[in-house]
Design a protein that fits this description.
heterodimer, A: mainly alpha, 80% helix, globular, B: alpha/beta, Rossmann fold, Alpha-Beta Plaits, 2 domains, 6-stranded mixed beta sheet, 5-stranded antiparallel beta sheet
């Protein structure tokens, strides 16, 4: 566990010693701010729905960029070899790196609480925002983003080229996202299966409207565990090559 | 004495293949505690494959590999320090930060970590640059960080892959001095190098790999002294004297002005002939081959030249 924390700490420090984290955080906040303002001003309602509807699209692009270097860059530069000479498990390496990028994402999300405070400040006299759905949406955004990041960590472990890893991550995420659209093409059990694994449909939408169902949470957590497990196996498979 | 020490590395009929390429074939090798073992071989001979197996980066195709009498290399890795040929670090970190990171991962207790890093930086001569980003370091300095990183957890076995590759002569000298200190402290070392002088200076035993096979191994002193030749230098050697010596039909006879190289077994007869012919003997020394001669003979089949190095040098 301490190895995982050490690796996570080092990765977080790496993020913040380069402009990447600052630039991406700024972009995340600006884009979310635009959609938040558009919704709040356009509909004159005290909700953050505009932002939360945008987050899946933003994270589709942002998660691969945030995670693409985590393992691929270490493989490319040769630092992974030195890391693997330490008596740390592959699981500690993968989970440590995942936790680092997840924490960065949480920090990004926390900054957006400022928009909620704005709503409270300006609409407080008219009842203010309804915090229940907002908080469940945050929870949904955390699970959804966490899943996208786990996919990114997995694809980063497949290659020593970060850009290739990012491209594969986008492809996998899109495939999972659009899977539900193919239900009508593939009739029967397979079509139902595709619909069930669709990554944003229902599960995220449920959380956005304030419904926190255990099955939705388990769905995202399962995907996170599956992709991290595959990343660990991918790292371990280097020894068989 | 050293041969009685417990084995640290044991390779028994070790094989490693990549697709149809046999990187290592039936390798049998033992490195004992406190021994400094030099692994030689041309590029592609299998040195890196062996190092990768020892470090657990890859698994053997067949055969046994035991380190510290343990076939579980994951466990053994905790006691191994490794210097890759080109150690790479996150260059945005300082040496202190990166060594701290590696030390924590290696399980060095936090109260011991800071003094340990200070000691290592002093050992490798980087105290003054300890807080600078690694990106500002020269190649030699980066290599020295690599040595410090390999030693952070006080390993019982040090595996060094081309520790002075690409360094200028001064840098090579620095690295060699550091390794000589470690050797004197009794650290078991496996040193892969193309720098034959380095191996000759730092290693007790060597193994020469050719196309994945260990074609020669043994104590450095034994390999170099196989020549069993003697160099005799006189003030002047006349043509008559040389004719008399040639008449002895010696296996080896090299005449270079006033210097003769003859088999040790015949040295007394040659010496007697020289004295009879009135030559004044200046010196007489047993010769040894250079490691380069041995290496070229074994790895490329180049015939051994008459050695040129007195053993007393």
């Amino acid at each position: 566990m301490s190895d995982t924390a050490t690796i996570a700490g080092k990765e977080l420090r790496s993020y913040f010693t380069s402009p990447v984290a600052y630039v991406l955080t700024a972009a995340f906040l600006v884009l979310n701010g635009i959609f938040f303002a558009g919704q709040a001003i356009g509909s004159s309602t005290a909700t953050m729905d505009g932002m939360f509807r945008t987050i899946p699209v933003l994270m589709l692009l942002l998660a691969p960029i945030l995670s693409m270097r985590l393992i691929a860059e270490e493989q490319r530069s040769g630092t992974l070899e030195l890391l693997l000479t330490s008596p740390v498990s592959d699981a500690a390496v993968v989970v440590g790196k995942y936790l680092a990028v997840l924490i960065l994402y949480i920090v990004m999300l926390l900054f957006t609480l400022f928009y909620g405070l704005l709503l409270q400040l300006y609409a407080g006299s008219q009842g203010g925002p309804i915090w229940g759905p907002i908080l469940s949406s945050y929870f949904g955004a955390l699970l959804l983003g966490g899943t996208f990041l786990a996919i990114g960590v997995f694809t980063s472990s497949l290659t020593d080229n970060p850009a290739v890893g990012a491209f594969i991550a986008v492809a996998i995420t899109l495939a999972l996202w659009l899977a539900g659209n193919f239900q009508s093409v593939f009739q029967g059990a397979f079509g139902t299966f595709l619909n069930q694994i669709a990554i944003t449909d229902r599960y995220y939408n449920n959380l956005m409207v304030g419904v926190v169902a255990l099955k939705d949470v388990i769905y995202y957590l399962s995907l996170i565990v599956i992709f991290l497990f595959m990343a660990i196996q991918s790292l371990g498979s280097r020894r068989w090559r | 004495m050293k041969m009685q020490a417990p084995p640290i590395i044991e390779c028994i009929n070790l094989n490693k293949s990549y697709d149809r390429i046999h990187a290592l074939s039936n390798l049998n090798l033992t490195v004992h505690q406190g021994e400094s073992f030099g692994l030689l071989g041309e590029n592609g001979a299998g040195k890196s494959s062996l190092v990768r197996l020892l470090m657990g980066f890859t698994f053997p195709s067949s055969g046994q590999l035991r380190i510290f009498d343990d076939a579980n290399l994951g466990r053994a890795r905790q006691r191994i320090g490794y210097l890759p040929e080109q150690p790479q670090f996150d260059r945005r970190f300082s040496a202190v930060q990166y060594l701290g990171y590696l030390g924590k991962l290696a399980g060095v207790p936090s109260d011991e970590l800071r003094p340990r890093i200070a000691d290592l930086l002093e050992l490798v001569g980087l105290t003054a640059a300890a807080d600078r980003h690694i990106s500002t370091y020269s190649k030699g300095m980066t290599q020295r960080v690599g040595i410090a990183a390999a030693l952070i957890h006080k390993p019982a076995l040090l595996i060094l892959d081309e520790p002075s590759a690409g360094l200028d002569p001064g840098g090579q000298w620095d690295i060699r001095n550091i390794l000589a200190r470690l050797r004197a402290e009794g650290v078991t070392m496996l040193l892969c190098s193309h720098q034959l002088v380095e191996v000759e200076d730092l290693c007790d035993t060597v193994g020469i790999l050719r196309r994945g096979e260990l074609v020669r191994s043994g104590a450095v002193s034994d390999l170099l002294n196989l020549a069993n030749l003697v160099e005799i230098v006189a003030d002047e050697i006349s043509a008559i004297t040389i004719t008399r010596i040639q008449a002895m039909e010696l296996n080896t006879l090299d005449v270079d002005g006033n210097r003769l190289v003859v088999p040790a077994a015949a040295s007394q007869r040659v010496l007697q002939t020289l004295l009879e012919e009135g030559a004044r003997i200046i010196s007489m020394n047993p010769l040894r081959r250079s490691l380069q001669d041995v290496y070229l003979q074994v790895s490329r089949g180049v015939p051994t030249k008459v050695p040129t190095r007195p053993i007393t040098r």
